[in-house]
């Protein structure tokens, strides 16, 4: 992770801006998507510093970071935490979960997410359709 992101984080703490949801969310997103294997623990530390209530953007940033990391199961764990804390996923949440299920080669999880996408009415979203097609192809290859 770049020195600039760490300096920005320190400045946000010093100024008290770490509690601004938009600013903190952008920081979490930037850290989560930079050199994933090294920064996820740091990202989680920043995530835990943000005062409740969080917002879906911040949750999605964390889920996305883990979905694209060597630890995709943590994306699913965060999704379940998000639900248990009363947050409602949006159309950006599900492509990251589909990515995680593909990384995990977990067909049951992929089908569960697909069912949730249909029930929530997100089936017409282009990004979701592309991820579902990728998931389906990988599942067929395993059979």
Automatic annotation (TrEMBL):
Keywords: Repeat
Keyword flag Repeat: yes
Gene3D superfamilies: Tetratricopeptide repeat domain
A Pfam match: PPR_2
Gene Ontology BP annotations: RNA modification
Protein origin, superkingdom: Eukaryota
Signal sequence annotation: none
The UniProt record lists the keyword Repeat: yes
Molecular function per GO: RNA binding
PANTHER family documented for this protein: DYW DOMAIN-CONTAINING PROTEIN, PENTATRICOPEPTIDE REPEAT-CONTAINING PROTEIN
Record's protein name: Pentatricopeptide repeat-containing protein
Species this chain originates from: Zostera marina (Eelgrass)
Lineage: Eukaryota, Viridiplantae, Streptophyta, Embryophyta, Tracheophyta
């Amino acid at each position: 992770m770049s020195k600039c992101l760490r300096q920005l984080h320190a400045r946000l703490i010093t100024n008290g801006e770490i509690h601004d949801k938009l600013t903190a969310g952008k920081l979490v997103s930037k850290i989560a998507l930079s050199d994933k294997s090294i920064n996820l623990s740091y990202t989680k530390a920043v995530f835990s510093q943000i005062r409740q209530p969080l917002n879906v953007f911040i949750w999605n940033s964390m889920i996305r970071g883990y979905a694209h990391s060597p630890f995709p199961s943590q994306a699913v764990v965060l999704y379940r935490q998000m639900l248990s804390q009363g947050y409602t996923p949006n159309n950006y949440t599900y492509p990251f979960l589909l990515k995680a299920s593909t990384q995990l080669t977990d067909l049951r999880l992929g089908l569960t997410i697909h069912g949730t996408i249909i029930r929530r009415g997100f089936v017409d979203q282009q990004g979701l359709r592309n991820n579902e097609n990728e998931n389906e192809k990988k599942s067929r290859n395993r059979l």
